[in-house]
Amino acid sequence: MQFHWANPSIVEWCQHLLDSYAHWIKLELIDRTGTPLEQAERLFNSTFVVASHGPEADPILNYGNQAALSLWVMDWQQFTKTPSRLTAEPPNREERTRMLDQAKIQGYISNYRGVRISSIGERFLVDQAIIWNIHKPDGTKIGQGATFSNWKYLDPI
């Protein structure tokens, strides 16, 4: 079985994601011991949600750990083809865009709270999320990441 986190491009992405998190938050997201491959595996199997998207005008999700895939009820192929705006319902997308723009300007935001929706229509409230800019070592911005460990399912509309 091919583990997506073991793909060399994903291992490299995980390093940028983890390095950028440490740059902005001044803490490590996970234990950084071991090889980049071991770190990618540790990140993928973390109990908290980690997701990211690229720098496109309409950003596409490009990483989700197992917790994210489970929460959004998607497999890797489905998740990594999804425009990140679709993780929020239409009424919540404007607020989501404002939050992402604020993170772009500041480098990161913490204590974000917002409603998201899974691929099967389950709504959940995310609480105390951190969103940060992901960049290469030369400073080139290549996307944004998000992590959170607090969420609760909401009643259907």
Automatic annotation (TrEMBL):
Record-given protein name: MEKHLA domain-containing protein
Origin organism lineage: Bacteria, Pseudomonadati, Pseudomonadota, Betaproteobacteria, Nitrosomonadales
MEKHLA domain sequence ranges: 12-152
Pfam short name (any one): MEKHLA
Species annotation: Nitrosomonas supralitoralis
